[in-house]
Sequence to fold (259 residues):
Amino acid sequence: MPSDPRLFQASVVHTETVSPSFQRVTIAGPELAEFEWLGRDHWFRLFLPPEPGAALRLPSVKGRAWYRSYLLIPAAERPHCSNYTVAAFRPAADGGELDIDVVLHWHDGELGGAVAKWAVGAQVGSPVGFLDQGVIFDPPEDAAEIYVACDETGLPAVRGILRDLPADAVGRAFLEVPSEEDAGAIAAPDGVRVEWLVRNGSGRPAGQFALAELQQVAPRPDAYAFVVGESSLATGGRKALKKAGLAASRISFTGYWKA
Fold:
């Protein structure tokens, strides 16, 4: 995480559905010329207007402190805040473009979640803000093999990690998604075996297919693991890897949401 995080302002330039479970929103603006993209699972805090068409009022940021300022914004004007990964970044002399892949959760035919609704209906020119937070994926220099696992909410992070691994990296990746249409070509080193796990209306909770795979692995003591997604996948994956002999210090895990 940067010691002095930068808060950027940008606006929507495009939105498109890339699969049944993902909407990609592209934002751009002159301030992005100063954004230092680190690749991998580079993440940020996304700020959106409290409702479509409303003004975007952002908190002040001093060092790493921002949350108190955020809470001091009157509730009716306070922006929505969520954590997201940079899916891709294209720098340019006059700014740059940044892609955000937003998961679409459907409940009885209704789209849930403020960011998902924003992503689907985002209007060109709509303002956004994002606070740079750096990367979490941080393998030790002696990591001999890599294990990554996620559900759909962690897929943008894991996709970036696999893309940016060294060409000689070895390991396994367990990527769980709701439907076959959400799976597809993904960049990864030849030595990393990528396994798509599709729930396909099975009725099983998100993350349980990936967790089952993690419970079967036998990592080397000098491996490194990164597990993100639904809370039970993150905590259960960590527990399984520790039971298999991997030190807690060599496991990064984050629960993005709770079922």
About this structure: The chain has a mean pLDDT of 95. The radius of gyration is 19 Å. The longest strand covers residues 7-19.
